[in-house]
Amino acid sequence: MALAFDNSYARLPEKFYTRQDPVAVPAPDLAVLNTGLAADLGLDTTELTADILAGNTVPEGAAPLAQAYSGHQFGHWSGQLGDGRAILLGEVITPDKQRFDMVLKGAGRTPYSRGGDGRAWLGPVLREYLVSEAMFSLGVPTTRALAVVTTGEEILREDTYPGAILTRIAASHIRVGTFQHFAAANDLEALEILVQHVITRHYPDAKGALGLLEGVIKAQANLVTKWMGFGFIHGVMNTDNMTISGETIDYGPCAFMDGFDPEQVFSSIDQMGRYAWDQQPDMAAWNLTQLASCLLPLIDNESEAALVKARAALEQFSVIYEAEWLKVFRAKLGLVRAEDGDASLINGLLTRMAASGADFTATFRALGNGTAGTHITNPGAWDSWAQGWHARLGRETGDTVAVMNAANPAIIARNYLVEDAISAALTGDMAPFFRLNTALEKPFDDVAEFADLRVIPEPSTKIYQTFCGT
Ligand code: AMP
Ligand code: MG
């Protein structure tokens, strides 16, 4: 067994983690293996056995550990959290010298499990697989899914379900909450080590803590505009679920919207709408403010000067966000050039879509074939908008339809599709999972054989809530 591990996180001081082997499971069975990703990582698939992916055998060169972190959950300080059911096996170095964490999620209890069982069940594991891989195919920075094993164990949630383990790949699993962990303990030395580690790993051009902060702000502003452009709602943007690398992480109660409602929330525990679709930029900025506050003592010795610099960096969030948002939504309308009225043109469509509860994905996709008006219930409202849009398109020079079709997916991981795939998997039929997964690999193509997967759900099949019962 020779995975090319090089474990830089395990070389950090002991207070960054607890060394912990995965807890063995009774009957590991390989359910899904992402051979394309394995190839990109330079992994030999014959080495990715069920025993290894279940944690029953620890591969040579691995340094299994559970990471320590803290965080704010729904705006409240939770103190220490940490990997309660994820084990970092090690870091894989790809043939082109990139470094990725390989984590087993659902690998058993750790010192950070609190009341939890350290396990995951098949439903949420398949959901994370489908949605994270779909995000990757859409071009959204994200953690990846390498494999799913079933464990032969029964997992108790609202009912009992088959246990499963997801192998997750990420540039790293370092979070805003990792910084908060040491800031809360007033451990400047650890913070400095963490800053250095993250700069080396993710922001090699950054100069010090301020440069790092600026890098994360830019990465997160970019990320959230992509979420917005695909109608994606993360659902639990807690500081422990926001990566420093700028990758989407933690696919628990997330979902892509069907009918457009800017205030849409999916998570059953988000009663206040804190993480609604239209709140996501503000919540990202809130999390980044927490990161900035952790970094203050490293930004400048003089506290007033540190505040001024951190504030200036944080102010850039909305500047970058707005510029990226315009780029994302211009492309969705077929626009490449920039004009002053573009933001109000975009918002004009969004307002009409919201008033109609128009399907987010289907309406944007229909812009490219001239049928978008059918999704807007008030024809006058559509016509008044379309006039301005057509005039604006007339001032573009390139192939506007190609621009739209490259920005507006034909197929997304709709909740009802994901739920159907999970239901079938629970009866032992993995075919719908594999078919959906294949369809989501080419989200911008209208593939005839997948027409049924592009159907807009009836209101009765819309699933308005996803659960944290992961
Ligand atoms: P999340 O809401 O998934 O970001 O998780 C928040 C915290 O709960 C993290 O510390 C997780 O590791 C922990 N956690 C979630 N599910 C479990 C579980 N089944 N067993 C142990 N810890 C868990
Ligand atoms: Mg989490």
Q: Which characteristics define this entry?
A:
single chain, 470 residues, alpha+beta, two-stranded antiparallel sheet, 14 helices, 41% helix, binds magnesium ion
Q: What secondary-structure arrangement, pairings included, does this model have?
A:
Blueprint: E1 17-19, E2 29-33, H1 35-41, H2 50-53, E3 65-67, E4 70-73, E5 76-80, E6 86-93, E7 99-105, E8 120-121, H3 122-138, E9 144-156, E10 160-170, H4 176-184, H5 188-202, H6 208-229, E11 232-233, E12 255-256, H7 280-299, H8 303-332, H9 342-356, H10 360-367, H11 379-393, H12 400-407, H13 415-426, H14 431-439
Antiparallel strand pairs: 1-3, 2-9, 4-5, 6-7, 7-10, 8-10, 9-10, 11-12
Helix pairs in contact: 3-13, 4-7, 6-7, 6-8, 7-8, 8-12, 9-11, 13-14
Bound molecules: adenosine monophosphate and magnesium ion.
Adenosine monophosphate binds next to loops.
Structure in words:
- The structure is a single chain.
- By secondary structure, the chain is α+β, with helices and mostly antiparallel strands.
- It has two domains: 9-173, no CATH class; 174-408, no CATH class.
- It has helices at 35-41, 50-53, 122-138, 176-184, 188-202, 208-229, 280-299, 303-332, 342-356, 360-367, 379-393, 400-407, 415-426, 431-439, and strands spanning 17-19, 29-33, 65-67, 70-73, 76-80, 86-93, 99-105, 120-121, 144-156, 160-170, 232-233, 255-256.
- The protein starts with 16 loop residues before the first strand and ends in a 31-residue tail after the last helix.
- The model has no long low-confidence stretch (mean pLDDT 96).
- The structure holds adenosine monophosphate (AMP) and magnesium ion.
- Magnesium ion (MG) binds at residues 240-241, 250.
